[in-house]
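Lab channel / #folding
Pinned by the channel admin:
"Please post every new chain as: sequence first, then the structure tokens as a reply. Keep commentary short and put observations after the output so the thread stays searchable."

First post following the new format, from NK:
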Amino acid sequence: MTAAGRWCTRIVLTGVLPIVCLALLLAALHGAIWGWVVAASGLMLVVLLQTRRLALLAAWIDGPQQGEVPDSGGAWGEVFRKLSRKLRLDARALAEVEARLGSFSDAMDAVPDGLVVLSENHQVQWANRAAGEHLGIRLPRDGGAIIQQLVRAPGFAEYLSSPAGQPPFILLSPAARRRAYSLRAVPLGERNTLLVSLDVTDARRVEAMRSTFVANVSHELRTPLTVVSGFLEHFGDESAMSAEQRQQFVRLMSEQTRRMLSLVDDLLTLSRLEAEDAPASEEDIDMADLLAQLQAEAEGLSCGRHRLQFRCGGPGLRGNRHELHSAFGNLVSNAIRYTPAGGDIRVRWKLRAGVAVFSVRDSGVGIAAEHLPRLTERFYRVDRGRSRDTGGTGLGLAIVKHILLRHQAVLVIDSQPGVGSNFRAEFPEWRLRPQPSPALPAADEA
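Reply from TO:
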């Protein structure tokens, strides 16, 4: 409404009402018809003006805009101003609520556990992003859908019907069952239900590894204990065996006892390595001296059955000598055990493209490609019979892996059945140190 319109409205209202009142009074006293006509016309004009204001108010309420509050003056103007103030306050409060809901929704989407709010009839009302990853729920597409139709797993509907007191429901992902989720239904209010999904794949994998580890240890210890126990039964009756048999039994029991001690020592070593993040102490290691020590040990283990070649052409190394000696010794002894008599074993320490490499190459039986990713697992054996015959505990490469990890190094394995294997331990450049002239011949290209 323009300013002229507002003034005209005020003049009409302030002028017409007294005239209407006077006309009604005269009509009542003298019965003048013109008085009734004037009064009726004035009342009609007032009603029209008020109706126009009501229409203006209705239009403004349907689409109020800040700064455009109608100014009708008087009581109507006050009503417009109060409504405008109330709408601004409501809009501000609504914006704050929407901001908080947005923050809450973002926080719930950041939660790694899946959250789904279900109605009394198990219809999906809300779900976070993790629930989409775990259960395949997508909003708004699945809003109002019954959860049993989205999560089709045997026993899930029965679990939802009476979740109280039951253990969590374990759901395996349809895709090759590679992921496992623990589902728990929690009452939410009087009628709703909160379905929480937790990814337990890693926990179940660890539990499976623990069970496998216990079974493997039990199996590895059972065999030598059975042998020793059987021989001890014969010792009870000395007349039943000769002195030569007794000596043979003692020798076999000693071998089995050493095997058990070796297994226990490796288990303790592996447990210590896994419990510590870094070596207790480090020093600058003369690699030529360490390779000379490894060569002497290898010659004693090979007993002349292999052609051994050790070369040192790299710098010194910063690390724990005892641990690195154990790791390198495991690689060398494995090569000797799995290389037939007359085979070649070459050990190198050299610098290549800024990376120091300790490599053990053999001409042994080799390993098929499908076994390579699992070689560093505890008790993993490509050929259990051959591993047991060579005296291995099945923990050597697991120990090597953990020692190298503690020295920020990596183990690289190349192998081909019938050709041989090459195990390489690669160390970062910052662990290298200058060292004196090597006592062993310099490494040639390998």
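NK: The chain has four domains: 3-96, 111-199, 206-275, 283-433.
TO: also worth noting, The first strand starts at residue 114 and ends at 118.
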